[in-house]
Design brief:
Number of domains of chain B: 1
Strand order of the largest sheet of chain B: 6-7-8-3-9-10
CATH class of chain B: Alpha Beta
Helix content of chain B: 25-40%
Order of helices and strands of chain B: EEEHEEHEHHHEHEEEH
Number of helices of chain A: 14
Structural class of chain B: alpha/beta
Distance between the termini of chain B: 29 Å
Number of domains of chain A: 2
Order of helices and strands of chain A: HHEEHEEHHEHEEEHEEHEHHHHHH
Largest interface: A-B, 27 and 39 residues
Number of strands of chain B: 10
Oligomer: heterodimer
Strand content of chain B: 25-35%
Largest sheet of chain B: 6 strands, mixed
Shape of chain A: elongated
Radius of gyration of chain A: 30 Å
Helix content of chain A: 40-55%
CATH superfamily of chain B: P-loop containing nucleotide triphosphate hydrolases
Distance between the termini of chain A: 38 Å
Largest sheet of chain A: 9 strands, mixed
Number of strands of chain A: 11
Shape of chain B: globular
Number of helices of chain B: 7
């Protein structure tokens, strides 16, 4: 502790250089923590759904192709199946394109059985089952657009559904698949569309997670060699499939994060080398009045570590704030968006990266300075 | 070695290898500096004065021979042991002061005390006493750039004596000062020697120093050519 003043005063010796070094480290660690968080967030989503008893069934050809509605009763008859809920992705727009959020049409009968973990508001599901034009809206969407229960809203159709849907909000969803989200009745969608019997995806609920593989096998076998073969997956695999499309991006993000950290590590090393080089004479004076070389080495490294840690706090703080804002305002990431934050593991990695930058950037120039002969550094040879 | 010797060199030789040529900076020097004395080392440039100081302070090693300070043979000590030894026994004053520019006068003087087990309050008391001794009690919060050359050298002297070393070693302490400041620094060193019983070894070109020191050791081309008592100082003191 008694050397704290010495370390801090040396850090402030060239304020501009210290501030610029701190900022460069902060920016690099900001990029590092933000980029490295993305794959971790994806894994977090998958881990959350790993023990789910829900199964998603779509056509083998992909989500763009529908399944016959008639499959519903056949799937429901499969052993261990508790509930089957078909859904269609409407993809409507509220007001502006930038206001878009996920919206799906579902059969209302078993929504509370299928998604008991979603936190429907009291009475909301009952009203949803009664009113053909009802919709349930995520709390995030309610806050974002200042909506109230009982209010009428209109979604503008786009793409596959080129018509508008007017509906009444009858309840809210606290923990849906995304902070911003809306579900309405599929029979209402079919009525407006005038082309019933098409389902994008069946959600199936098993009576236990152990029964999930058995149900998947049974359903896929049942519709094998039909005109619309099914591809059933557990909820974790289904989400993993969506996330899998981003894997290459995540790998690139990690590599990019590391490159940025290494580059800034070299910049910090250059700054540390310049700072230490300017003080070779002072270091020799300190050694000549009794400071051991290892102590001076530790003091020089401490300066670098303090600089790197200051950058780490700034960088992580900025990344945390940005991801917080991003998670509140963005819906384009669908199921990821709720989990967007800097996980503790990434914070730890960023802290380690900062420590490494601090240690490695100063070690070589500091070691070189304290190993130099005192007489040479002082230029005292007569 | 006599118990009354603060420093003793026995056949100390220091040679350097410069660009393939062997240069003998100090050649087989044997001398003794008595305790509580004020010794001036004089000689032309390149005579080995600073090399002699470097050997006495342990920041350089003799190529052959032995160096003892305070009865302790420092010739075989390793770097860390020498650093600890210097912290306890040596106070260094440089020609160009060599204060740390980002530290105040107080903090510069406190620097050697950071290596001791003294408490913060004890360190403060020691620093204030050292500042009082060099007549700069009112300049504690000034940075080196805010002090004159003479004042900087006083702070450097305070830093040299604050840990109560066995011996104070000064390398051309008046070399960068005007005549008035040089006179003040020499007077201060003489007072430290007389009142505080400090052994002082000073390398100098300054002929005024002859009035202040007890003994002058003369070197020429690395060879110790003799010691002479300063009659002028004896009379003037």
């Amino acid at each position: 502790m008694k050397f704290t003043t010495l370390v801090l005063k040396n850090l402030l010796r060239s304020k501009r250089r210290t501030i610029l070094t701190v900022l460069s480290i902060a920016i690099s660690l900001f990029i590092f923590s933000a980029l490295v968080s993305l794959p971790t967030v994806a894994n977090h989503v998958l881990a959350d759904s790993a023990s789910s008893v829900r199964i998603a069934c779509r056509t083998k050809m992909g989500l763009a192709y529908p399944l016959p509605e008639a499959y519903k009763s056949k799937i429901a008859a499969t052993p261990h199946v508790v509930a089957v809920t078909p859904d269609n992705f409407f993809g409507g727009i509220y007001h502006e394109v930038s206001d878009q959020f996920p919206n799906i049409a579902v059969d209302p009968e078993l929504v509370d059985v299928m998604w008991p973990d979603w936190g429907f508001s009291p009475g909301g599901v009952e009203e949803f089952k009664k009113l053909r034009t009802a919709c349930l809206v995520a709390e995030g969407t309610m806050k974002r657009f200042h909506l109230n229960v009982g209010q009428q809203i209109q979604l503008r159709g786009a793409g596959y559904y080129p018509f508008n849907m007017s509906m009444t909000i009858v309840g809210t969803v606290a923990h849906g698949p995304a902070p911003s989200f809306l579900m309405f009745r599929r029979d209402y969608l079919e009525e407006i569309e005038g082309r019933p019997g098409r389902v994008d995806n069946f959600w199936v609920r098993a009576d236990s997670s152990r029964a999930v593989p058995e149900i998947i096998q049974a359903v896929n076998s049942q519709f094998a060699n039909s005109s619309a073969e099914t591809q059933c997956d557990s909820e974790a695999v289904f989400l993993g499939g969506i996330i899998g499309r981003f894997r290459t991006f995540f790998t690139l993000a990690r590599i990019l994060g590391l490159i940025v950290v290494v580059t800034i590590g070299l910049v910090a090393a250059n700054a540390a080398a310049m700072s230490i080089r300017e003080r070779r004479n002072e270091i020799a004076v300190m050694r000549s009045i009794g400071f051991r070389s290892p102590l001076i080495l530790r003091l020089l490294i401490a300066e670098s570590v303090v600089t790197a840690l200051a950058g780490c706090v700034l960088g992580c703080g900025a990344a945390f704030a940005l991801l917080k804002v991003f998670s509140v305002t963005s819906d384009v990431l669908g199921p990821f968006v709720g989990a967007i934050q800097i996980p503790p593991a990434v914070l730890l990695q960023t802290l380690l990266a900062a420590l490494l930058i601090g240690l490695l950037s100063s070690y070589v120039p500091a070691r070189s300075a304290v190993r130099r002969k005192i007489v040479d550094a002082l230029r005292m040879v007569d | 070695m006599s118990r009354s010797d603060a420093v003793r060199l026995e056949h100390a030789t220091r040679t350097y290898n410069r660009d393939g040529f062997e240069v003998c900076a100090l050649d087989n020097v044997t001398l003794a500096i008595p305790v509580h004395s004020f010794v001036g080392i004089m000689g032309p440039s390149g005579s080995g004065k600073t090399t002699l100081l470097n050997l006495i302070t342990g920041i350089d090693h003799p190529s052959s021979g032995h160096v003892s300070v305070g009865g302790e043979d420092i010739t075989g000590m390793d770097e860390n042991a020498l650093a600890d030894w210097r912290a306890r026994h040596i106070g260094l004053v440089f020609q160009f002061y060599n204060l740390i520019p980002v530290l105040t006068a107080f903090e510069n003087i406190e620097l050697p005390l950071l290596l001791t087990d003294l408490s913060r309050a004890e360190r403060r008391a020691h620093v204030e006493a050292a500042l009082e001794a060099v007549g700069l009690a009112e300049r504690t919060k000034h940075y080196p750039r805010q002090l004159s050359g003479g004042q900087e050298q006083r702070v450097a002297i305070a830093r040299a004596i604050v840990a109560d070393p066995t011996i104070v070693v000064a390398d051309e302490p008046t070399g960068d000062l005007d005549a008035k400041s040089a006179e003040e620094i020499l007077t201060l060193l003489a007072e430290l020697n007389r009142r505080h019983k400090k052994t002082i070894v000073m390398v100098t070109h300054d002929s005024r120093a002859e009035r202040f020191v007890d003994t002058i050791f003369r070197l020429d081309k690395g060879v110790f050519v003799g010691a002479e008592n300063s009659l002028i100082r004896g009379g003037g003191r």
